[in-house]
Amino acid sequence: MAKIVIAEDETDVREMIAFMLRFAGYEVFEADNGQTACELSKTKQPDLILLDVRMPVMTGYDACRIIKNDPELSKIPVAFVSAKGLENEIAMGYASGADDYIVKPFTIDQLLNRVNAILNKKSG
Fold it and tell me: Model confidence over 10-21: pLDDT tens digits?
């Protein structure tokens, strides 16, 4: 079972995404900010990290940079899941080291297809 860390400061959104991922068979660890996501990633060694952009304590961009610069975590794929969908915001996500950028809103199928694609690419 693949492990996923999700960082989202909006509780309802985080819980909804976590529920969808758990229902699809993933083990999910939840964080409400970028710093907690980095800490969870260090201890849980997930197969995928999903980050919102705007969060308290540490932004998703900053968390992604820290993860990608950590030799223990750098190979873990990171995807942003954000309503920040302007071209420059998406470019900032990729510039911080992200492997994918999923713009909200999305359907359950769209999210699961992207998550599966990222995980399949990692294992392939």
Answer: 999 999 999 999
Contact between 29 and 6 (Cβ < 8 Å):
yes
Task: State the Cα–Cα distance between residues 90 and 120, nearest whole angstrom.
Answer: 22
> What is the rounded CA–CA span in Å between residue 110 and residue 121?
16
Task: Please write the tens of the pLDDT for every residue from 74-109.
Answer: 999 999 999 988 999 999 999 999 999 999 999 999
- Tell me which residue of 76, 71, 124 sits closest to 100, measured CA to CA: 76
Cα(76)–Cα(48) distance, rounded to whole angstroms? Answer: 6
Q: Is residue 41 scored above 70 in pLDDT? A: yes
The domains of the chain, with CATH numbers, are 3-123 (3.40.50.2300)
Other beta carbons less than 10 A from residue 35's beta carbon: 18
| Nearest C-alpha neighbor of 47 from the set 27, 31, 62, 30 | 27
